Each structure stands twice: as structure tokens, then as C-alpha cells.
Request: fold
Amino acid sequence: MKTAVIYGVTGQDGSYLSELLLSKQYTVYGIHRRSSVNNTTRINHLTNKKQFHLIQGDVTDSFNIYRLLNEIQPDEVYNLAAQSHVGTSFQQPELTWNVTAQGCLNILEVIRQMGNRPRFYQASSSEMFGDQYSLNNNREKYQDERTPFNPQSPYAIAKLAAHHSTTLYRRSYGLFACGGILFNHESERRGERFVTRKISRYVADLYWATQRGRSIPNLKLGNLKAKRDWGHAEDYVEAMWLMLQRDIPDNYVVATGETYTVEEYLKTAFKCINIIDYMSHVEIDDNLLRPSEVPCLMGDSSKANRRLGWEPKVNFKTLVERMVSHDIQIRGRCGEHAGDSEKFRSNERT
Ligand code: NAP
Ligand code: GDD
Reply:
């Protein structure tokens, strides 16, 4: 039986990856940060499992990483830990760097010094491409493993440093280290400040408000023209695992190969509750525009398909419908408190 360590276990991907590894009979050590409030809601359903262990730790604490990895002696280490919100990285660039770039280097250095070196997965990101793209025969923009990087945010710069470190440690020290260049992936467990979940939560609140004969304030959004390649997180954690099962470590793009604007997501989400005139519920808030933006992401994951046998199962429309329908269910259970999230949304500045 294999043993895995997951940094970032409390996040969206950490929860799905834990489920996947447990289903494959792994023993999983999830590393989580101490928090003054509960940060384990996505993994509470796993904490009673014998093969799942939650341990306190932080990727910015090298001593802690050294002690834990040497005690656990895992077969695989997944680094999903990051300050992962692009907008926030403009407000907190140093913190973003320390967690997202330095944190990865800290883990790589510890693994380099271990006798039995575990395999390592780094959560790299399509944000690293920034405004760069390649052109296919139909003159359509796409990104793959050969597309140059030109990061457009402190987050993307930190991710690129971590990605290059992962490649360097593989080439220079022979670590089995893989960089998964994952495009946007969402789910019913997506953080509430990412645009897809922000919209699905609003649509759910609007649905319940209408049912109860009430109105709610408009949804404030930033750039609606940006294009993203959106998949479902459950599919994407499988690609992470597949990368570490190969004979040879490498970097892979993981994406659906389709791209949609934020406005198309918005339109599809409102359609789930039969609202066509979605813009009458939306306000553009300049505070939500970013100092620089990634205009268009569309990944070509042919390499992952060929070498890992990976392909996405959930398409765009199903993704949106699943998120909206989930939020309608949980916001319904919240009842009277459903409007509270609006106070939070109107205070959001990223
Ligand atoms: P997420 O939900 O924001 O989860 C991030 C995780 O990192 C959380 O568990 C968080 O813990 C943890 N973390 C933050 N600072 C930490 C620190 N100092 N030490 C240890 N853990 C720390 O992100 P996600 O969507 O699951 O994404 C997983 C990873 O993939 C991230 O690295 C992200 O940047 C990357 N990525 C995501 C996407 C996407 O579309 N989802 C695409 C490409 C790459 P708390 O719960 O305590 O905050
Ligand atoms: N968050 C947010 N909030 N984004 C908004 C809003 C808003 O109110 N209005 C418009 N957007 C636009 C952003 O400007 C961006 O162009 C797009 O919606 C998607 O934003 P996010 O959902 O925050 O995701 P992201 O693409 O910036 O970053 C996500 O994907 C990356 C992979 O490409 C994150 O998961 C990153 O961690 C990940 O690396």
C-alpha cells in the first residue's frame, strides 16, 4: 500500500485528491494550517477514515516539512498549497511569493536531501502563460507545453518560479518531479471568491429570493470578456495522480480544449433558473478589474491524453448546471440567511 502526503489538503483539489487516493487504498497524510476557525469543511467527511490523517504544518516552515517528510517517508508528495487567488496576489504579493514559490522550493530541498525520495507533484497553472498563446491551423489561440510563459500577476510569477524549480530539480538532481500545468477547474467545492462560484451562489440566492417574493442587490463583477478553459476538479486530480504513476517524470498541460468568456458562464448559469436577461442583475464594478489580466486561456492537453490516457469527462454546460444546482440546494437549506453572502460579495475588492 502506498503513502501520500498532500499539502493544501483543505482546498478544493486537496479534498478530491484525498478521496481519489483513499479509493486506491493509499494512506493519506493531509497537511493543514492551524486556523482560528474551522478550515476543514471540505474534508470533514474523511476524518473518521482509518487511512486518513490530518497533521498541522505549513509550506513556509522548512523545519516542519523536514520533520514530517522524514517521519512519514511517503511514496508521493502532492504540493497543492498556495495563495491561489490571482486578484489577492496583487494585494499581498509577498505572502503569495512566500507560500506559492518559496513553499514549493522548501519541499523540493527537503526531498533532495532524503534517502528514499518520494515522487513529487507541483500544482502549476495556466496563469503562467499570461498573454502568450500558440496558433493552430484554424488560427485559433491555444496553449500547450511548448507555448512560452509571460506571467501577468504576482501569483503567476510565483507559480512560474515554482514550476521552473520543479523542472530544475528533476533535471539537475534526478528527482521524480512533475509539473501539472492545469487550466481552470471548478466544482461544487470551489472557493466562493472565484468567479464561477461567485456567480453560481448569486444565481441560487436569486432563485430563493424570487421564490419568497423578495429582491436582492445586483451581482458585482469585473471583467466579463476574459476567456477561460473550465473543467471539473474531480477529473483534474486524476491527471495529477496519473503523472506520478509513469516511469518518467515530466510536465503536462491539463485542460478541456474549449474556452468560454466569463459572460458566457454568467449567461449559462442564469439560464439554469430560466432568466435570459441576466445583465439586468449585474453591475460592473471597476474595483474588481485587475491591474493586468490574462485575456484568453484554451489548453491543448494532447500530451496528457497520449501519455497518461487522460481526458476530461465533465463539459462546460454540465459543470455550470452542477454548480448552480448544488448551490440552489445548499442555499435553500440556509433559508433566511441566504442573503448574507451578498454583504460579503459587495465588500469584495478583488
Ligand atoms: P484552494 O482551494 O485555494 O486551496 C489552496 C490550499 O492551500 C488550501 O488548502 C490552503 O489552506 C492551502 N495553503 C495556503 N497557504 C498555505 C501554507 N502556507 N501552508 C500550507 N497550506 C497552505 O486551491 P485549489 O483550487 O484547490 O488549487 C490547488 C492548487 O492548484 C493551488 O496551488 C492552485 O494555485 C493550483 N491551481 C488551481 C487551479 C484551479 O483552477 N483550481 C488551476 C491551476 C492551478 P487553507 O484552507 O488553510 O487556506
Ligand atoms: N474572482 C473574480 N471575481 N474574478 C472575476 C470577477 C469577480 O468578481 N469578475 C470578473 N472576473 C474575471 C477575472 O478577472 C478573470 O479574468 C476570470 O474572471 C476568472 O477569475 P477567477 O475565477 O478568479 O480565476 P483565475 O482565472 O483568475 O484563476 C484561477 O485559475 C488559475 C488557472 O488558470 C485560480 O484557480 C488560480 O489559482 C489558477 O491558477
